[in-house]
Amino acid sequence: MKYEPLYVAYLVYFNRDRxxxxxxxxxxxxxxxxxxxxxxxxxxxxxxGLYHFRNGNVxxxxxxxxxxxxxxxxxxxxxxGIDMEKLVGEIRLYAExxxxxxxxxxxxxxxxxxxxxxxLQKAVxxxxxxxxxxxxxxxxxxxxxxxxxxHARSVTVSQK
Length: 160
Hints:
The protein contains seven helices and no strands.
């Protein structure tokens, strides 16, 4: 089976870099290109859930993890070349714990997606050197350079 380069990039950002914002960026593009495939949406939501919780947004993390669970539970155990059964179990546990966070707080921890298809393992290994990590990682949407210049000019003008 051949895997989409954006999916491969998602796995690199998820497992190697733990860059869940970038995971959202690359997988959203694939999700839209593939007629809003619920599998990609679920994987995207798992990354967004981790992103939110890591940044202190417990409610956002719980909502995204629960939504990811709903989309990924119907998948086969070996869907998309990954151990989907294991991932779904970990997402389920995370969502349950986040629902009870006020009564039983816990520390943030990353998840890993186990790649089980040798073809996908090779694709991830070969793509990884060409995918540069974002250092520092983005912590939210960023404005374009054009917007930044415009904002800088308006601040300068208002200070005169």
